[in-house]
């Protein structure tokens, strides 16, 4: 339960374990590529090569590493594309789909931030 800030409002920043929860989230999502991979997979499952092209200029080695981390956090799943090939397909999991509102908010905030910075530079 969060601590009362005034008569009618609770503040989530005062709840026990708040910073541990933030640390857990950042551990799953930190880095240059993880959110981009998740965002790409929100548009549908992709083969490794298609995902690499979608997120260029990520290297194959980095993409492979990040996908393994995301799998470990149960955000991405990996499936064999067919029985005749070793081609793998990656998809967002149900748990990973819970990040969609966060990513949409980050996109909106990034757009707002970019406009603020550009406006500041123009003055």
UniProtKB/TrEMBL annotation:
Domain HTH hxlR-type, chain residue ranges per copy: 11-118
Q: Where are the transmembrane segments?
A: none
| Keyword Oxidoreductase on entry | no
Write out the entry's keywords from A to Z.
DNA-binding, Transcription, Transcription regulation
Instruction: Kindly name one Pfam family recorded for this protein.
Output: HxlR
Asked if the record carries the keyword Transcription regulation, the reply is yes
* Span of the signal peptide: none
Protein name per its UniProtKB record = Helix-turn-helix domain-containing protein
